[in-house]
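step: validate -> pass
step: tokenize input -> pass
step: predict -> running
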Amino acid sequence: MRIRITYLISYLFCLFFSGCNNVPESPEMSSNLPCIFPDYLGVTIPDGIAPLNFCIDGADRLDVIVTGGKEGELHVNGDYACFDIDDWHAITNRNRGDSLLVTVRAFQDKKWIQYKPFTIYVSEDSLGEWGVTYRLIPPGYESYGLMGIYQRDLSNFEETPILENSNIDGQCVNCHTPNCTNPEQFTMHVRGNNGATVVRKDGQLEVLAARNEELGGSMVYPFWHPTGKYIAYSTNQTRQNFHQLSDLRVEVYDETSDVIVYHVESREIILDSIVSQKDRLENYPVFSPDGKTLYYCEAQRVDSVWKTYQQIKYNICRIGFNPNTGTLEGTVDTVVNARSMGKSAVMPRVSYDGRYLLYTLCDYGCFPIWHPEADLWMMNLESGESFPLDKANSTDAESFHNWSLNSRWIVFTSRRDDGLYTHLYLAHIREDGRADKAFCLPQYNPQEYDAETIWSFNTPDFSIAPICLEKKNLYNQILSGKTAPPIRATKHGS
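step: predict -> pass
step: emit ->
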């Protein structure tokens, strides 16, 4: 558990002073909204989420009153807004479908100032998930050092490790995903000297060789078939270069990439030439919720990629999938023709109710995490209409998104806070597919966490329950190098 001791000290400090009489009398009234961190003004949240604690830079003390639109009131007083978890849950639960009015008084420049109240909306749509999983990694490039895959209980601030690379000789751990947020079916990738693809199905762990002589790359960017019988992966040979005369930092691109389907029980790799063409780059495969369609990204392969990377622009395509045979059927259909707009569309994710396609739109390439222009877009799969998620987007990069199982919430990464670190944001999706204003993953002491953390959040997903792995056994299998190779690939197509 990574809840810092300082958090406990801060909590006791907050409790002690909340009972004191250090409250503002006759504060100076301001017509401005408070400049709080994180920005929770006007956000939409689910009931039962961890308290939206916040601070104001330069304020010595805050006095905050939260009033429920239906009923209930909270009053906290301290060096930052620190709400009791049970009290916060109670007031959000009682005000589902309504709102909370937040009045902030701050002691700044030796005087109390009362700011214009702001609203937090509490959705009628529950989150329906226990928590989120994500990778934490320092925001570096060639060298990554310490990293791990973690999980966080969304009702409080408890974070626990799923796997940390310090236990496997510092190898890279990435590309993790559950099946429809179910941790009983889970896969992740380990890259390094003892590289492996880990597959967990119905509580049983299997550690596979990361590469196969016929793949041409590692099994990454996974997505489960809803039946649990298959996992779609891409196999990528990834490179990165640094910008010299640009305000951009690094460009990550694929020299080659194909899409494959892995049969979990037989350990058979199913290849099809239609999604592994030599003159094409295929990437980010995902299945539709009914399991009958495979979505993926494709781009025209170019020579001298490091010189012409800005010419690589991806469309989102789909093709029929037969769950009985594990084979592709029919012809390829272009769903999002981003190239016609001079753009690149990547990271497709279909809502679990099958109504919407969520994706990232950027200027070029397939790795938009360093592209400040990258935004989240939504397509209505029935009407074909596409539109940006304006209230979820920012002026910096949004990417690596996933849906909650009830298709009413999304989680994604954003660099909006400082342009350097990626943080997790959640947003409510309305019935029409539009997003409400996103909110940052709550932290116990936001200012302290922001000042002390060295981590960027990466590849988040929801989980209906904690992921419990037999870590010692898993670490030993990875370190031993005794991985099970997938059965020889079966090829289809011309």
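step: describe -> The CA atoms of residues 239 and 253 lie 6 Å apart.
step: cleanup -> pass
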